Structures are given as structure tokens and as C-alpha cells.
Amino acid sequence: KRGLQVAIDGPASAGKSTVAKIVAQRFHYIYCDTGAMYRAITWKVLQEGVALDDEAAVKQLLDQITIRFEPGTPVQKVFVDDTEVTLAIRQPDVTNAVSQISAQLAVREELTERQRQIAEAGGIVMDGRDIGSTVLPHAEVKIFLVASVEERAQRRLKDNAAKGIQTPLATLRHEIEERDRKDSTRKISPLTQAADAIRLDTTSMSIQEVADRIAEIIQEKE
Ligand code: C5P
User: Fold this and answer.
1) How many domains, in total, are found in the chain?
2) CATH number where 72 lies
3) Which residues are known binding-site members for ATP?
4) Would 82 be classed as within a structural domain?
5) What's the ipTM?
6) What is the separation of C-alpha 154 from the centre of its chain, rounded to a whole number of angstroms?
7) Which of 112, 120, 154, 214 has its CA 20 to 30 A from that of 6?
8) Which amino acids bring their CB within 6 angstroms of ligand 1?
9) Over residues 21-25, mean pLDDT
10) Is residue 222 part of a domain?
């Protein structure tokens, strides 16, 4: 049996990737972090010194690179061609530039195409901003995860500490709000809840509770 398509969308730091990974493992599904793909092209743009607003050059660069995932603990490894960028794509320079790259039509078209190919056979949990609305409009399960800004900033602070990144809480709060604003107001495929998505407010839920709830929803459909 090939398995369902599960779309998990929501704003920055709502816990999407953490629960998506748990759920994927439980059902033996593939996990695909689409944010990592936008981060990977952003990393490459910064690396090559291409101007963030040079859309033609950004697209050309994207056409030249492969973005691959490999299993790894505690996090999946991400590669741009043969370079591992797992940690580099989580650094503040990439985080703060990614919304400007992900707003570009050519970038979205190309990555949407790659994401559809990855999800084609089903048995996949894909997380991002526009999976339920645009990438996989026919996904059998669509979840929209939200949490208060304060809670998300606290979670990011903890995540960062584990990675050795030290950014003050107030800065994180500001960065999260800014990224949400940019991702929600862009013209193409903005962050938005699909009409048929199930909204889960995770502010006072544990990771395990959220994963269990999503697993229940999948079981009902499987
Ligand atoms: O999920 P993550 O925070 O890693 O995503 C990084 C950025 O990639 C988002 O802020 C957004 O600009 C972009 N993104 C997107 N569409 C997706 C996934 C991520 O535009 N499906």
C-alpha cells in the first residue's frame, strides 16, 4: 500500500518539522522538509554572492543545483550537490534572507515541481507553508499548525541553544513576526490555511500530543 499524502503547514517555528518527522516515522512514510529546500537555494545565493533581488540569476543558480536529503540523527542531512549544508541553512543569515528568495515566482515554480515529484508516490509527510494550498491540493490529510508568537520564540530559543546559536528572545520574536508577515503577504502562494485543512493550536500542547492527534487523523483516512 502506497500510503497517503500528509501536508503540514503553518507559520515559522510552529513545530511542523518536529511533529512531521515523528509522524512520518510512525507510518513509515517519507518526510520532506520543503523549508529546507528554500533555505538551500538561499544558502547557495549567499555563497555565490548573487544579489537577493536578481531573480534571473537566482533562477539560473537553482537550475544548476541538486538539493538532496539523507537520513541522519537527530536531523535529516541536507546537501546542495556534494556539500552538506544541514547546519549552514539554519544560520541567521539564511533565515533572514529566505523570505526574499521564496517570494520569487521562478523559484516557487521550480521547487513546487520538485516537491510534487518527491510526493508523487504517496506515503509522505511534507511540511511547509503552501503544501495543502498549492503543492499538494489533493493531499488526503492537511494540517495547519499554529502557536502564539511568544511560545514559538521560546521554542526557537531552545532549538538554537541545542545548536549553539545564541540569539536573544526579543530578536527571535521579532524575526518570527517579520518572517510570518513576509510569508503571509507575498503575492505567490502566501502562507495560508487551506479551506479543508484541520487547524491545531499547539501553544499548550506537547510535541507528543500534537503527533498523536495527527496520527489519529491519518488513521481515520488510511
Ligand atoms: O519551514 P522553514 O522555517 O524552514 O522555512 C523557511 C522559509 O522558506 C519560510 O520562511 C518561507 O519563506 C519559505 N517556505 C515557503 N514555502 C514552503 C516552505 C518554506 O515559502 N512550502
Assistant:
1) 1
2) 3.40.50.300
3) 10-18
4) yes
5) 0.98
6) 19
7) 154
8) 12, 34-35, 38-39, 98-99, 102, 128-131, 179, 183
9) 96
10) no
